[in-house]
Amino acid sequence: MERSRLLSPLCEYSEILNKVFSQNPEDIINLIKESGLRGRGGAGFPTGLKWEFSAKAQAEKKYVICNADEGEPGTFKDRVLLLESTNKLVQGMTIAAYAVGSNYGIIYLRAEYKWMLTELMEKIEEMKNKGYLGKNIQGKGFDFNIEFRLNAGAYVCGEETALIESLEGKRGEARNKPPYPAQEGYLGYPTVINNVETFCNIPYIICHGAEEFKKFGTDKSCGTKLFSISGDCEAPGVYELDLGSKVQDMLDLVGARNTKAVQIGGAGGATASEKDFDKPICYEGYPPGGSIMIFNKSRNMVHVLRNFMEFFEEESCGQCTPCREGVKRLTEAVIRIDKGEKIDEDEMRILLDLAEVMKITSKCGLGQTAANPFVYIYGNFKEDF
User: Fold this and answer.
1) Are strands 224-231 and 291-296 parallel, antiparallel or unpaired?
2) What is the pLDDT of residue 2?
3) 320 to each of 73, 184, 364, 368, how far by Cα in Å?
4) Where are the beta strands (DSSP E) in the chain?
5) SS3 call for 263
6) 330 vs 35, 269, 315, CA distance in Å?
7) What is the rounded CA–CA span in Å between residue 242 and residue 171?
8) Element spanning 83, H or E
9) Percentage of the chain surpassing pLDDT 90?
10) What is the DSSP string of 292-349?
11) Radius of gyration over alpha carbons of the chain, in Å?
């Protein structure tokens, strides 16, 4: 982990909570809004704004949910945070709960991370024993408890409304929006959902202030970001980089040589070719999701594309036609190309039109981004086709 703020020590646990409880919930929300923190799950929605919507919603109950369903191919950063920054995660959730008026927290954990569940539960119990969780936290009259739920292994449940459906014991499928979870989420109650990394940024902002947080990154992409970097490089691992860092700077950092392509933001992200290595990774540049996969010039990008498309075909929940049928047709075309069959320009144009239809008509982020690798890889690596 390079120069990590997220793993480095901050103020004492009790000091952070005292800072929080000495302010009004509205002040906390305004601080998070001022910091410019955006959700670290990929969509990049302003965190403070999401909290504000939930805080203003009138209901007898509210929920704070941590999306720890780290199912994006090539992503493993949240695993590090869960184990090494559990305190910060719990602090972030507690602060969110105080800000929006919730007493109930849930950590929705990836099924493949069941091996760490016992350790995480022990850490949660330890925090309860210290008075950092449970009833009357720090004697301030505020109650907040956290429980764990395991995902059943579906990729689509990383999408917040499909996650809620799963929590309610239903099939993991995206809901129609609106209403949004901040107004009507888990069990019909207002619900804040942020991912592990987003919550882990909250104590830093409370401890050091919004202006210190904004010293990192760009005007539109404040702070730093964790990246799980893998593939053809000398030093794969989890790195913390300023948002706005250029692709080439990242490649130099991890010892990537003779690089042909970089998959940024997961399977449904963007595929950068060598001509684009001078571009930034941020919300106004390449999508700053948690996954970066590096491919050197020995790789055939059609093989890479086939892997991505078969993944999306497997993981599509099948609920909406654009995603269900669109992914299937694109995958069939890629398999034909991979077997050596030529596709003429007219058919390719139809496939690219289909990709655009999927982007604007699919119900959730999976369908909206599933065609991205097809568009990017065909556009940037025609020689492999």
Assistant:
1) parallel
2) 43
3) 22, 22, 9, 11
4) 63-68, 104-109, 145-150, 191-195, 224-231, 237-242, 259-264, 270-273, 291-296
5) strand
6) 41, 16, 14
7) 38
8) helix 77-84
9) 91
10) EEEEETT--HHHHHHHHHHHHHHH----SHHHHHHHHHHHHHHHHHHTT----HHHHH
11) 21
The span from the CA of 110 to the CA of 153, in Å, is 7
End-to-end CA, the chain: 37
Report yes or no on whether pTM surpasses 0.85: yes
Q: Is 168 exposed, middle or buried (0-12, 13-18, 19+ CB in 10 A)?
A: exposed
Give CA–CA dist 139/131, Å, rounded: 8
Cα–Cα distance for residue pair 276/114, rounded to 1 Å: 39
> What CA–CA distance (Å, rounded) separates 114 from 166?
17
What is residue 341's DSSP assignment? -
Number of other residues whose CB lies within 10 A of the CB of residue 74: 21
In DSSP terms, 183 is beta-bridged to none
Query: Is residue 270 within 8 Å of 286, Cβ to Cβ?
Result: yes
Nearest one of 372, 231, 229 to 309, comparing CA atoms? 372
Backbone φ, ψ for residue 141 (5° rounding): 80, 15
Q: Which two tokens stand for residue 229?
A: 């970097």
User: Tens of pLDDT along 318-367?
Assistant: 999 999 999 999 999 999 999 999 999 999 999 999 999 999 999 999 99
Domains of the chain, start order:
13-213 (3.40.50.11540), 224-296 (3.10.20.600), 301-384 (1.20.1440.230)
CB burial of 150-161 (b: ≥16 within 10 Å; e: otherwise) equals bbeebbbbbbbb
In this structure, what are the phi and psi dihedrals at residue 208, rounded to the nearest 5 degrees? -110, -15
Question: pLDDT for 150-187, tens place per residue?
Answer: 998 789 999 999 999 999 999 999 999 999 999 999 99
pLDDT at 152: 82
Token reading at 323: 């995603």
Question: Cα angle vertex 288, ends 283, 291, to 5°?
Answer: 165
Structure tokens at 17: 């909570």
Amino acid identity of residue 235, one-letter, is: A
* 365/340 Cα distance (integer angstroms): 31
Mean pLDDT, rounded, for 13-27: 92
Instruction: Render pLDDT for 30-39 as a digit per residue (tens, 0 to 9).
Output: 999 999 999 9
Beta pairing class for 104-109 and 224-231: unpaired
DSSP 8-state code for residue 236: -
User: Does the pLDDT of residue 7 top 80, yes or no?
Assistant: no
Show the tokens assigned to 270: 């963007």
